[in-house]
Amino acid sequence: MELYVVLKLIWWALLGVLLIGLAVMVGMDMGVGAALRYLGRNDGERRAAINMIAPHWDGNQVWFILGGGAVFAAWPTIYATAFSGLYVVMLLLLWAMIVRPLGFEYRSKMPSMGWRNLWDWSLFVSGAVPMIVFGAAMGNMLEGVPFHFSWDMVSYYTGSFITLFNPFAILCGLMSLALALYQGATMIMGRGEGVIRERAIRLATVSGPAALVLFTIGGVWVMFMHGYVITSGADPAGAALPLNKTVAREAGAWLANYGSVPALWIIPALVYIAIAAGVVAARRGAAVVAWWAGAIAWAATISTVGAAMFPFLMPSSSNPSQSLTVWDASSSAGTLGWMLVFTLIFVPIILIYTSWAFYVMRGKVTPASIENDDHAY
């Protein structure tokens, strides 16, 4: 196998790793924000919940930067097509992300309950909206995005903002939100006490099964969905030119890879196993086990989509033959190679630092401890 093909496959896998890291780490913080008004019934309890993720939420944003940077450098055609065609969605996500740190920083600057409630709702919106958009993006990738290229590789988006939130995309968005709520609940279980911890346990035992139900409905939906299949012209070692192949849409095409490699069915099965184990662990109060079960569920969910779509990355519903794939949307071999070198150096450093930060800043957070801490949010 040529080195260029190997590098493309490695970066396809690394893109999945980055998406999983984003979903697990950022999703955990977003889940706490989205559930803040349920987890905390008064100002002290909400401050406690906020301060449980306060040492980590900004560091977890590194996964957003890594994901965006990786797509920009490794898959520039996808970056240009997605960020130009989905501009309104990107702005929605950006504004939600801007409001979020403002909520953390400004919420407790004034004692007024009206002021604090305003920022509590902003944390809810800035937690729920990005996770719904994240899931909806996955759903739209499966359905296909309405774009096409001109002869000189200028991309044209032919859809609208509303069409991006179609029924299947909303289903995927709600599942993403449910998994985020579960992940956030397990975080609160590990660091909270008393009623906050009890509410987090209840949230985990509800949001986990809800995500599983939505995952099942989505799986049945995909069985009858018109997926994409390459019929001719794809060159794994070819240049980044998505105009030289033909693609057909067929019902059930997204299950073709699972039919060819039956062992892949282990991946969606892991979603069921992980969530079931996580809910049992949550009911028993085993926060660490429940958290890791949620992380595995996230990883298996994203891997399920990746395995179904391979080698497609961004299918086109307007002109299926111009869909972007692993083979024709990547950077040069030199770029992928140098990026891999730096990734192998810096990603382990990020993982080590993140683990160290969680270890150092471990421990319980209570409303009483927050009231006596001048440095708390």
Polypeptide structure, described:
This protein is mostly helical and 377 residues long. The protein has helices spanning 3-34, 36-39, 43-53, 57-60, 62-74, 76-85, 87-106, 113-143, 167-191, 194-224, 256-260, 266-283, 287-309, 333-360, 367-371; strands spanning 147-149, 155-157, 226-232, 246-251, 312-314, 324-325. The strands form three sheets. It has a two-stranded antiparallel sheet. The radius of gyration is 21 Å and the shape is globular. 43% of the residues are buried.
Topology summary:
Layout: H1 3-34, H2 36-39, H3 43-53, H4 57-60, H5 62-74, H6 76-85, H7 87-106, H8 113-143, E1 147-149, E2 155-157, H9 167-191, H10 194-224, E3 226-232, E4 246-251, H11 256-260, H12 266-283, H13 287-309, E5 312-314, E6 324-325, H14 333-360, H15 367-371
Antiparallel strand pairs: 1-2, 3-4, 5-6
Helix pairs in contact: 1-5, 1-8, 1-9, 1-13, 1-14, 5-6, 7-8, 8-9, 9-10, 9-13, 10-12, 12-13
